[in-house]
Amino acid sequence: MKIFVCIKQVPDTETRIKINQEGSGIVTEGIKYVVNPYDEFALEEAIRIKEQNPGSEVTVVTVGPERAREALRSCLAVGADKAVLIRDDPGSLDNLAVAWVLSRYISDKEPDLIFTGLQAVDDNMAQAGGSIAAFLKLNFVAGIVKIDVGKAEAVVSREAEGGVEVIRTSLPAVFSAQKGLNEPRYPSLMGTMQAKKKPIEEIEAGSLLKDITPSRIKTLRMFYPPERPAGRILSGEPPEVVSELVRCLREEVKLL
Description:
Order of helices and strands: EEEHEHEHEHEEEEHEH
Largest sheet: 9 strands, mixed
CATH topology of the largest domain: Rossmann fold
CATH architecture of the largest domain: 3-Layer(aba) Sandwich
Number of strands: 11
Distance between the termini: 59 Å
């Protein structure tokens, strides 16, 4: 089976993000970058399917700058077979254009399965999987927490409101991975050493941008949310506290 995993390099979730003076983006100096956590679930599932189907191959693909090589090396270290960097300057492509570029690269590779994370933790757009599927004219199931793959179809489960939804789809298809699908493995020392020696294919994003505008979305302004006012502790006898609480909700907070 040919399995493709589309990943994104994002700021570490423990990194403190600062907005630049212009309000046009974040300060990138000193930021630690990692593989998007949701993409780690996608990659782990792809590797497990490969292990269950001898002769299968997992290729990880990302669109990003030179620093994204580090994320690809991380994926190779845990078991991916090939890695592809589609070079792009940060901010030059919007989410739709990124999905288009990824789909153009994959389109002639005869994929059986394509995985993405449910969403990227930096922008939370959750567009990649659905957009790639639309461009490739393939079935798409979002937010899967279980998948059983056969020769020509897959049965997947995803959490629905108050229950679990089970879906059967023909292959090839695109799936976005949700937390709970699996527990991503850590890279071994040998895997890390081998990953350093594996080649990374490199392509310029511009060569895949035919028939689409590079960016239709522009960030106008970024700003911090307003600080929350300090909380208040009401004291007194229960009837007095309840009366004062109702007054605050009605007159100050305007909730009643």
